[in-house]
Amino acid sequence: MRRIRLEKGLTQEEFAEKSGFTQQYLSGLERGTRNPTIVSLYEIALALGVEHVALVAPDAVAMQEETRRPKQGTAGTEPTAARKRKIKSPTLPPSAARERRIQKKP
Predict the structure, then answer these.
(1) Phi, psi angle pair for 105, to nearest 5°
(2) pLDDT grade, residue 51 (50/70/90)?
(3) What's the rounded Cα separation, in Å, for the pair 5 and 24?
């Protein structure tokens, strides 16, 4: 949405007046913190003078980011050295623990 708005030479304030939505709502949509309804997408597309599909279709920038982004489920799957070695908390061997109990009895 931001790319199309900027191509049309509109500020968020101007676009808010033209679309009937608040500037805060439009800002949230552009930042990805708000999710529009289908009706809102349609009304925004009308205000921008584009098809509603243009608002949800990935543009060239999004496609480039997608190719640079690691695939889901692959990051962090390789075990680190700390994960490979099972780090155990320091405990006494069973024989030493038994000896301690025996020594403590009166």
Answers:
(1) -70, 135
(2) very high
(3) 15
